Amino acid sequence: MKYWSVLGRVLTMSALVVGAIGCEPTNGSQSRLEDDPDFVRGKSRLARKDIDGAVLSFRKALANNPANAAAHFELGLVFYEPSKENTDYVSACYHFQRHLELQQDSRHAGNIGGFIKACKKEIAKDIAMAPIPPSEINAIHTLRTQLAKANSENSHL
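Above: the chain sequence. Below: its structure as tokens.
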């Protein structure tokens, strides 16, 4: 009889533990994130090539739930797309990185790593190609002149 009593308690505790674990809220499963009405609207707008509308919908999805990794991924793709109007490598890099932070086990992680590297290269290219303002060119010329004068004076010492 004691055996059945102990077994009953163990089974009851096991059932309670399994039930508690099953009821524990998660950080938002992927399917729930993709069921967000604004996210669904964004995907629909993307399919219709309404890029501005899709961006607006995905941003609304993020306003409702900033931890929506799927919305970050979609925005990253939209901003990474090489088109003249919407390409924004800084935003793409941000959204891809947020996606990986929120969903470390993302099935897209390998591709996203490459996207982030490409974004950083494009950002660096933009910075390196930026024109130097004339005031900075004049300042550099003045500093070079002063350096040459100082070197000349030092050589006479």
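The chain is about 75% helix and 0% strand.
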